[in-house]
Design a protein that fits this description.
Two copies of one chain form a homodimer.
Chain A: E1 17-22, H1 30-45, E2 49-54, H2 60-71, H3 77-101, E3 106-109, E4 116-118, E5 127-130, H4 133-140, E6 144-148, E7 151-154, E8 159-161, H5 166-177, E9 186-191, E10 212-214, H6 215-223, H7 231-240, E11 244-248, E12 256-259, E13 272-288, H8 293-303, E14 308-316, E15 319-327, H9 331-345, E16 349-362, H10 372-382, E17 389-393, E18 396-402, H11 406-416, H12 419-428
């Protein structure tokens, strides 16, 4: 009651706020836009406040990039952002129109109008501030703000885009600013999959949909290649404690909730398995184990613009051996960079292997359970799959295997941790 | 010298500022955009400051409207503006890229970023203020600002479009704010015709291109259907004394200068002829000549959304007869509205004629020359063309003729005033 103001006549404790984000496929054509609008209306009809965030329609972004390429081979980042930002602006106008057609008062807003301030780094801007006044005003007027994802204004008033995963980040940032968690709301990410699975169902047909997953686990899975959510948006959600609900935009399924780790989550050792295919392994053997050796090597690799996957080092007396994995596409560049390092060192051998894959399992429960790694190694061993490298983090175990074993390895790991039953167990509240 | 400031290092009296506006056809594809950029570079290479204004590419606006129609049959004006404004934003980014490709530093700006404030009337906003600070800053940095035509921000920060003729209006408004006339600059309107002609060359093959024309004359011709410039932009130019130079975007011709009337302009009686085809005439005969009669009639017509062309009234004692012309497409509606008025009056007859055209001649020189009207009537009479109605203004004479006489009538009027020789005479400085 103390919080009531003339501008907020309809805010009360029973009304939650939901930020609903619709991706490019979900708003790909007028029919799909109408379905998104119906989703928004349904939430609103339940008596909740809704703020909508949308991406550019389907292939708009690709079309705009192609147009720019026909004009110049070196567009400036600023002008690309000016161009790209139009994609979301088209979407918000159309979604607002579709909502009004259903009798839902709606107001489209550019990122800047919605109060999103960025650091001004064109093409990869970070959200520095969200001023919620305009959103609050629209909500208080009983309207649904429909906000351009992926963009914001710098403090100089320049249009900037947030780069990959930008629309998810916009949605989570607005949800954080609106404190959606306080009244039981959430940030709903509507996408073309119906949630987060224990593995990619195209690889592992027995994969099951998770009812919930912790930010940390989702982050690891996203970094390992799960494309449901961009790691950046997950990190943002973790930092501000925003419940993120991943749902299918065209189907009414319950989806997956990404949230803080709860004590019962630790009962589950592993929540997901992932496969990164087409890796190559670069090994520098018998090199001097000097301090600074690793720094020199990976500085050279980074300067060549090569993204390194996992790194393993082993010692033999005064000599060391360093292996790291990279994507196949990086191998040509990495060979040059590594050779130059060996030339400078004056000793050692360079070996490059191709045709590898990385199979990983992720789970918060690993922190408190012993025997997770051994269970995985044993399962792969019994199946006759040789393991070339092992890397682990607090909540992840990764094994490098031959590419031809990759698909079988992830299915075996998935079975070994009973992930085919996890979805159902979570849904029934008996997980663990 | 007294005006020099640290921010304006390269401004001096020898540098003029040109606002160059490119229409939708001129920026229709990457090749045409490259040609526009070359035009801008050429001006700049002459040592002048340039500010560019662009419209949406080719058919973008139509495509966006079609998209909106697929979403809803009643889009709100606000959301339509949000949607439409993206068209120009795409253009400015691409034109800025094309300029940078030619080595010309350029900065694209939305209407709002360029300092254009409107009255907030969605779809038909009027420019209320132009804050030139940002433009000055870009110019002082040696950059070419590339501004979205057709749009501005309301004082509430809402995106608004200026409606028909909006991009021309933007260009003239920026030129006014930048005082381009003071240093010999101009507002250059690049379009798909090479200037203003004494008549539409498709109708009158002998039509000649005018070197210059007064705002007043251009305004009359635009209202009579000349599509080179929107009347609104001409009015704006007249009010602020902005020289408007209409030129072909893909050809180097000299074009036509629209400027204040100069004393020698009055030497030329007529500068142009125009034809409005497909008019219908509505006559209310033998109606009481009461005060308020006309008001009642035209209020009813306006309420029906009908655009009236010319009105003529004649009296016979206590009775009057009112005729007015409308476009053929309005006849069905006008018949209903006029019948209702007669019903209320309780007397009078309604007559509707179709198949009429209006041929007009325009010229500032009429103010100081006698015999202009008689020369026109005589020429039409000698050709055996009956005149059904005559309306005149200070600088215009219009005759309603049968549609089948229209094309011949404009050619005769064009000949009667020697317009086929006017273009060459103006160019040679011997006009009049």
């Amino acid at each position: 009651m103390a919080e009531a103001s003339p501008l907020e006549p309809c805010r009360d404790a029973t009304m939650a706020t939901f930020v609903q984000k619709f991706g490019g496929t979900s708003v790909g054509d007028p029919t799909r836009i109408a379905r998104c609008a119906a989703r928004v209306k349904a939430r609103r009809d339940e008596g909740h406040h809704v703020v909508v965030v949308v991406s550019a329609m389907g292939h708009t972004t690709d079309e705009l990039i192609e147009l720019a390429e026909r004009v110049t081979d070196k567009p400036s980042r600023r002008e690309l952002d000016m161009l790209m930002a139009t994609g979301e602006q088209v979407s918000v106008a159309l979604v607002a129109m579709a909502l009004e057609r259903l009798g839902v008062p709606a107001t489209s807003l550019t990122g800047g109008q919605a109060g999103i301030t960025t650091d001004g780094a064109y093409g990869r801007a970070r959200v520095t501030r969200v001023a919620r006044e305009r959103l609050d005003r629209e909500i208080a007027l009983g309207r649904v703000p429909v906000v351009c994802g992926f963009q914001g204004l710098s403090s100089d008033g320049e249009l900037t885009t947030l780069g990959r995963g930008g629309s998810d980040t916009t949605a989570v940032a607005l949800a954080a600013a609106l404190h959606v968690a306080e009244h039981g709301g959430a940030c709903e990410i509507f996408t073309d999959v119906d949630g987060v699975y224990t593995a990619d169902p195209r690889l592992v047909p027995k994969a099951t949909k998770l009812a919930r997953i912790s930010y940390e686990e989702m982050l690891e899975l996203a970094l390992l290649g799960a494309q449901v959510m961009h790691p950046r948006a997950v990190l943002f959600g973790e930092r501000y404690g925003v419940p993120i609900h991943v749902r299918h935009s065209q189907r009414p399924d319950e989806g997956t909730l990404i949230c803080r780790e709860t004590p019962d989550m630790e009962d589950v050792m592993v929540v997901g398995a992932a496969l990164k295919p087409d890796l190559g392994r670069v090994s520098l053997r018998r090199i001097p184990n000097n301090p600074g050796m690793q720094g020199m090597l990976f500085e050279a690799v980074a300067k060549a613009g090569i993204l390194v996957d996992d790194i393993v080092q082993t010692e033999f007396g005064e000599m060391a051996s360093i292996s790291f994995t990279v994507d196949h596409s990086e191998l040509a560049d990495v060979k040059i960079a590594a050779s130059q390092v060996l030339d400078r060192v004056g000793t050692g051998e360079l070996a490059i292997e191709i045709g590898l894959s990385k199979v990983s399992v992720v789970g918060t429960g690993m922190k408190s359970h012993v025997g997770v790694a051994s269970r995985m190694f044993k399962a792969l061993g019994e199946a006759g799959i040789p393991i070339h490298n092992i890397t682990t983090s607090e909540i992840k175990i990764s094994c490098i295997v031959n590419k031809e074993h990759g698909a079988r390895a992830i299915a075996i790991a998935h079975d070994a941790f009973g992930l085919d039953k996890l979805g159902a167990a979570q849904a029934a509240g008996t997980a663990g």
